[in-house]
């Protein structure tokens, strides 16, 4: 399970060092793809494969489903961390997420998210009230 918040820096070659505590789980390969809210999603390869299979089973007669599947598949990039635990983020991924040198990697239960540090701070500020007043009808039995 991926939990916590980390602040690695993006180097001049577009490489990002993954948090050390997650490297073993991601050593066998991972997939980087567009995430929601202009973040990047980093999945262990087997988790991504399962999500992709579920997405492929959705009816493509729905325009939103087609768009989601297309974005997910077209932006997927298979990576294997190097000996230092770094992955290289493509220029398209860096542009999509607005990444600068200062990044934030957050655990999102079964995957990681990569955010530009300022975008993450803005997102947290914008959604704090939603988090604080979360209701059972939205989150089911979680609360």
UniProtKB/TrEMBL annotation:
Give every SpoVT-AbrB domain span: 5-47, 76-119
Q: Name one GO cellular component term.
A: nucleoid
CDD domains listed in its UniProt record: MraZ_C, MraZ_N
GO MF: DNA-binding transcription factor activity; transcription cis-regulatory region binding
Entry's localization field: Cytoplasm, Nucleoid
Instruction: Name the major location.
Output: cytoplasm
Q: Name one GO biological process term.
A: negative regulation of DNA-templated transcription initiation
What keywords were assigned to this record? Cytoplasm, DNA-binding, Repeat, Transcription, Transcription regulation
Which spans are transmembrane here? none
Q: Which Pfam family, any one of them, does this sequence belong to?
A: MraZ
> Source organism's superkingdom?
Bacteria
* Matches recorded under PROSITE patterns: SPOVT_ABRB (PS51740)
Family assignment from sequence similarity: Belongs to the MraZ family.
Q: What is its quaternary makeup?
A: Forms oligomers.
PANTHER family reported for this sequence? TRANSCRIPTIONAL REGULATOR MRAZ
Q: What is this protein called?
A: Transcriptional regulator MraZ
Lineage, highest ranks first = Bacteria, Bacillati, Actinomycetota, Actinomycetes, Mycobacteriales
Gene name of this polypeptide: mraZ
């Amino acid at each position: 399970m991926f939990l916590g918040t980390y602040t690695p820096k993006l180097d001049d070659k577009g490489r990002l060092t993954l948090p050390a505590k997650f490297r073993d789980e991601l050593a066998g390969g991972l997939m980087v793809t567009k995430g929601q809210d202009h973040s990047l999603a980093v999945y262990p390869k087997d988790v991504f494969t399962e999500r992709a299979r579920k997405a492929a089973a959705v009816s493509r007669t729905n325009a939103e489903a087609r768009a989601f599947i297309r974005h997910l598949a077209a932006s997927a990039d298979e990576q294997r961390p190097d000996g230092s635990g770094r992955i290289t983020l493509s220029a398209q991924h860096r542009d999509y997420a607005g990444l600068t040198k200062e990044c934030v990697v957050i655990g999102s239960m079964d995957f990681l998210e990569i955010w530009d540090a300022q975008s993450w701070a803005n997102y947290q500020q914008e959604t704090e009230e939603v988090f604080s007043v979360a209701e059972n009808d939205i989150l089911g039995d979680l609360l």
